[in-house]
């Protein structure tokens, strides 16, 4: 599709474009997408907007909702959103950003994980206006002949432009032939769905561009692509991931969700506001200005935590979670700053964690603190001295004055 940069956009189209771009990393090609929006407004035909997620884990976390939120915003503009579950591509395994071949999931694992995806995605998207699709619908039908014909439409040279493939090839790290099929199959999804726009994280840019090129090969108008930033996990370092234990699941209980959000650093809080909050940009900027002028950042973090909890539960749940959180720390105020500790090898016993986090001088002291009721995790008293702590980020408290924000990373 050709569009001219000289075309004057109506105020309505400019507003739509602003909604699409808020918080995004990159929109390619902006002039083409503006023309698509203008055509949609003129004809009343909604755009087809695609997001594909592979069910590699059973739960959706806040990191996933960065793109889901954008889908909902575009859905509210009247466009058709397609939530694509990659049950076929999961059999291949997405190599994006990896330094080694990703083990493919079994069909049983994929089915088990996919069962919860739709229900959880519906906590963000309007299920009445969402098209749910599985890419096995068309990928299974391709067969060997169709796969060969599809592969003939993309060159090895183009595939090797992908950064992680290039890095692995130069480093002598094996690349399996089936990994080349992943971006091809993801791209073919766009052909099958006749997508106008595809969303994804910044790590998906190559795959999204393959879809654009394949649509041209099949005589379709190429999709535009909108990449969203990857949300850092509660540790503020790695991207949010269940495997790294730094995630906040959208189906977690209100108190757990609230506590984890309160445990993030004051700096990371603004990143979460940017990518997760539905507040107007001007409101967030005003909050930042208040903090710069001396306001307590904890108050802003409370507002963020309540907004997120209310979104996935209820406003009353958010109110109650705050009340319980404050009650837990009433006897000893939670400090604004506390030591940040990273420990590997989770799950780890609570006594070992207390010792290695510097909250107890010995295992016997740690055990005594637990037995005396002086140890809390995210405000909840620990009563089991044999407790195994799973990967994640927690605020640990011993007595009234010892605190540490501890991130437990899974064993390699």
UniProtKB/TrEMBL annotation:
Segments carrying motif 'KMSKS' region: 239-243
EC class (word): ligase
RNA-binding S4 domain ranges (all copies): 348-409
Location in the cell: Cytoplasm
Domain of life: Bacteria
Keyword Endoplasmic reticulum set for record: no
Catalytic activity line of the entry: tRNA(Tyr) + L-tyrosine + ATP = L-tyrosyl-tRNA(Tyr) + AMP + diphosphate + H(+)
Motif 'HIGH' region location, chain numbering: 55-64
Recorded coiled-coil stretches: none
Subunit and interaction comment: Homodimer.
PANTHER family from the UniProt entry: TYROSINE--TRNA LIGASE (PTHR11766:SF1), TYROSYL-TRNA SYNTHETASE (PTHR11766)
NCBIfam families tied to this protein: tyrS
Similarity section: Belongs to the class-I aminoacyl-tRNA synthetase family. TyrS type 2 subfamily.
Name of the molecule in the record: Tyrosine--tRNA ligase
Species in which this protein is naturally found: Mesopusillimonas faecipullorum
